[in-house]
Amino acid sequence: MIEAFYDVSPAWPVIIGGLIAAAIPHHLVRKGLALLAPILAGLLWFNVPSGGHVGGVFELGGFVLETFRFDGLSRIWGLIFIIAAFINGLYGFHEKDRVADAAGLIYAGAGLGAVFSGDLLSLFFFWELTAISSVFLIWGSKTQAAFKAGLRYLAIHVLSGVMLLAGAVIHASETGSWAFDNSLSVDTLGGLLIFLAFGIKCAFPFMHNWLQDAYPKATVTGAVVLSAFTTKLAVYALARGYAGTDILIWIGAIMTAFPVFFAVVENDLRKVLSYSLNNQLGFMVVGVGVGTELAINGAAAHAFVHIIYKALLFMSMGAVLHRVGTVKASELGGLFKSMPVTAVFCIIGGAAISAFPLFSGFVAKAMTLAAVAHEHHYLVWLILLFASAGVLEHSGIKIPYFAFFSHDRGHRVREAPANMLMAMGVAALLCLYLGWPDMFGIPGGYRALYNLTPYPEVANAYPMWTFDHVVGQMQLLMAALFAFAFLVRMKWYPDEKRSVNLDFDWVYRRAFDGLARWGFAMFGRLWSSIGNLLDGVRTRLGGRLFQTFSPMGALSRDIPSGLLAIWTSALLAIVLLIAYLAP
Amino acid sequence: MDMLASFLPAGVAHHAPVLIVVVPLIAAAVAAFMPRGVMAWSVALATSVIVAILAFGLLGQVGAHGVVSYDVGGWAPPHGIEIRLDRLNVPILLLLGVLGVLSLIYALPSVADEIAKKQQALFYSAFLVCFSGLIGVTIAGDAFNVFVFLEISSIATYTIIAMGVGKDRRALTASYNYLVLGTIGATFFVIGVGFLYMATGTLNMADMAAVLEQNGHNRVTQAAFAFIVVGLGLKAAMFPLHVWLPNAYAFAPNFVTAFLASTATKVAFYALVRFVFSIFHPDVAFVSMSFTWLFAVVGVIAMMVASVQAVFQTDARRLLAYSSVAQVGYMMLGLGMGTAAGLSAGLLHLMNHALMKGALFMALGAFALNFGVRRVKDLAGLGKTMPASAMAFTVAGLSLVGVPLTVGFTSKWYLVTAALERGWWWAVAALMISSLLALAYVARLLAAIWMENPPSHHGEVAQRRLAPWMVLVPMLILAAANVYFFFHADPLVGLAQAAADAVMGGR
């Protein structure tokens, strides 16, 4: 416990590491920084007394900025961001891209900075920094599609930042306080603007498209890095400012349910993961919306474990993309022979996200569900249950199945690089450790997670490993598995020679009784007609504006000076009129 | 401040108020007789350095005494001519001095490239006349001399704009248009001053204010107000009287654009503030009504319309010229709030805008000097071929948008705060929208500079070419100032607030 460092937010070593990395041409040095910076940040994190602490306060232009607020809520988020940054550094060890290294570190540091911000202005600064630094991870793919997706991503996130700033200004002018705490409310204009700014980053329904648009187009490591920070930062911000806001329960419930359909019919496996990311966020948002101590614990614990297993899944798909060059379900299959270790890690990630008992997802999700049931939101509870089954279908089974088993496409590639395997190994170990129950009187790994939550005493008092929980969850999972297996069996035999993948797609769609297909088509139609409408407005309006304002346009043409003299007289008349009318 | 007040020798210090305007006038005559451009340039540079030193000295004197009054030729007002310096005009004087030095350093390579050798000496001479005229407007203590110096600066300005003819013949029509309009503006102004003289019987501005306060207002003073506002508004490029500005800036020599964009409209804006706040009174009903219904409205329209116009321009300098009109709109909005906070935000934006536009136009001049590019699409790849200039351009461009870590953010911040204090939500919304539009047009330039590849000719890609150091140094200083004064906002904010307080005078 060195007091001198109490004022140094863990964000700084990571951001500064990123800035240095931007200037260093030698890639091993950069990689060293990418691993060292999170370790330094971790030391700073451990250095602070866990009771709560506000440090790094300084004044800039008359505003007091708090850069290091360490309390129950920011503690757990800070730690998981640090862990994620470390795993990302390990995973990207083989890449020789200076921009990506620097951007990844600055992005992670900005995420940390935002989590530890105690006031809205510092939050805004780091909020925008995450947007600007992360876009380079998308652009890193160097394809035209990625470039355009990156621009769209940047536009919407900068918009989010602007709304945050506008909301903060209004909020501060009304309350006189820049503090970032639960004094925010959706009933005031400022609070609502900030809420929507958070909502954009959190991928609320109808604000979510940037996520599925950008993440799958990012680089192999880029997608892993991106999956960790942006959206979870938004969940943190909501938990900090809007815990217990009822509307969040319904927003979250919709978020859990609707991506299921899209994820099931999607062919690009990284896109499937993006949809499932959205679904997982829904659970956390519901937890924040319920807002009881148990629910906040659930959201925080869920975010913690989610970052790890989602990164694990993205890493395994990244390894596949790295070796095979595609993650299209229709072009993969049978990879378990060539990449057995990756396959095992992927299955662990799938089991964790599906909340199998003994894996980390189980201990976190159960708390959220219990909190929802405890507050008597039964319909929401049912939606969450349905979504849990959906998660198993598209993330727990579909991802490993199509990538590593299913019909062998004859890809014979090498196992993923050692550093990727190490990163995945660390993540997989954490997935197992954090889900480990008490056994033979030895406290299980999940206790460590519960002790980290904002309200550890509530978490530890929660009876996690009861017979009901385990059996109930197993029933749900088994029923879902059975449904899957049954449908596969039914369609497998008649049609063996045709492309198995397409059959599965078809089966999937039948399984959801055409609902997914219908929803997909309707949504697509709606989307395209909205797009057409907007396009029409834009070309027409753009044309008008161009005709009016361009150098040839009416308002910017060179006008004869005689006409200008008339303008001058007209203005004179106006001023005289004002003077005449004045009381 | 104390150090600034006393570093000049006592005799110089005492006569500094008159020296600051007389030295450039005499130097103009000297420069005209110089056989070579470089020698005329040396005279001009030396003059501007002297002016800057005197301006710092006067800043110190004003800091110490509040008001410095100087009777020209020993004739006391109201019969003699008074030079009067206070906290409102001393920052403008400082701006003129510092930007005069910086842009004159920049001038040598740029002018050598754009103006015929034989005309260079005359060009510098005309510039010095314009310089001295602007200084005169800033420090004059009586209304008629404001008019005289306004005309001196304007006539010289028409000349130096027309000298852009070497690169583009349209400079002639641009200058002619400005001449016609500028003359109308000056005429309106002098008519207004005439009305005021009729109503008050004095030309000294301090006396005018005193008489008006005592006697109250009538239709004559109202007419005077209208004429003066329109006349000075035209000079300050107040929308919709800005139409002379885009062409004048687009076709003038680069050095002239860089200097005028950061000083000329600012001086006219100062004169407007002087008349509207000091002589007329913000508490007088028709003045305060014109704040809300004229200045604020016109300012917001300029912020929107001129920004949209900028978005669609093809010529880079014309684009920035329209942006200048929009920025004048910000200042008008600040003025229109009619509060000390609003006025100080407007004045702060005036100073910050000089820093941004100075750097931006200098960078465009550097691009033109090295590669002869003027259109937006020709800026392609300059990030690779001229990295230093492109960096300066980028920093100043971001400042123009109002990105945090630049002074653009500081002044917009103060504007927003002032608007909120006044309860003008629509003005905050307008500021936001206008900033987004600014982002759009700056992004067009930056995208061309950084994202596109340098042009190639017969497979040979354009090579990296550094701008001359005399171009680079002042440009980089201005760009750095854009960042420096974000972190050390106090000096500029202090000047602006002191100016606003002085003119509102605790009213």
Question: Keywords, please?
Answer:
heterodimer; A: 583 residues; mainly alpha; two-stranded antiparallel sheet; B: 507 residues; 20 helices; 4 strands; 78% helix
* SS strand fraction of chain B: under 5%
Radius of gyration over C-alpha positions of chain A, nearest whole angstrom: 26 Å
Task: Report the helical percentage of chain B.
Answer: over 70%
Which structural class do the helices and strands of chain A define? mainly alpha
Amino-to-carboxy terminus distance of chain A: 70 Å
Provide a brief overview of the structure.
The complex is a heterodimer of chains A (583) and B (507). With 583 residues, chain A is mainly alpha-helical.
Q: How would you sum up this structure, described in words?
A:
- The complex is a heterodimer of chains A (583) and B (507).
- By secondary structure, chain A is an all-alpha fold.
- Among the domains of chain A are: 243-496, no CATH class; 517-581.
- Helix content of chain A is 72%, strand content 3%.
- Chain A is built from 22 helices and two strands.
- Chain A has helices at 11-23, 27-47, 72-91, 98-116, 120-139, 144-175, 189-201, 209-214, 220-242, 247-265, 269-290, 293-324, 340-353, 360-374, 378-404, 418-433, 445-452, 456-461, 467-492, 500-511, 515-549, 561-581; strands spanning 53-60, 63-70.
- In chain A, helix 4 (98-116) runs parallel beside helix 9.
- Chain A is globular.
- The N and C termini of chain A lie far apart (70 Å).
- The model of chain A is unreliable at 492-513 (pLDDT under 50).
- In chain B, the strands form two sheets. Chain B has a two-stranded antiparallel ribbon with strand order 1-2.
- The model of chain B has no long low-confidence stretch (mean pLDDT 90).
- In chain B, helix 2 runs antiparallel to helix 5 (120-139), helix 6 packs antiparallel against helix 11 and helix 10 packs antiparallel against helix 11 (254-279).
- Chain B has helices at residues 2-6, 10-32, 37-65, 89-114, 120-139, 143-162, 170-200, 205-215, 219-235, 244-251, 254-279, 285-311, 316-337, 340-371, 382-385, 387-401, 407-422, 425-451, 469-487, 490-504; strands at 68-71, 82-85, 456-457, 460-461.
- With 507 residues, chain B is an all-alpha fold.
- Chain B has a domain at 282-507.
- The longest helix of chain B has 32 residues, at 340-371.
- Chain B has 20 helices and four strands.
- The chains are: A mainly alpha (583), B mainly alpha (507).
- The A-B interface holds A 60-61, 125, 128, 162, 166, 169, 173, 545-546, 549-551, 553, 555-556, 558-559, 561, 564-565, 567-568, 571-572, 574-576, 578-583 and B 173, 176-177, 180-181, 184-185, 188, 222-223, 225-227, 229-230, 233-234, 240-241, 243-244, 246-247, 285-286, 289-290, 293-294, 305, 308-309, 311-315, 318, 322, 404, 410, 416, 420, 428, 432, 436, 487, 489.
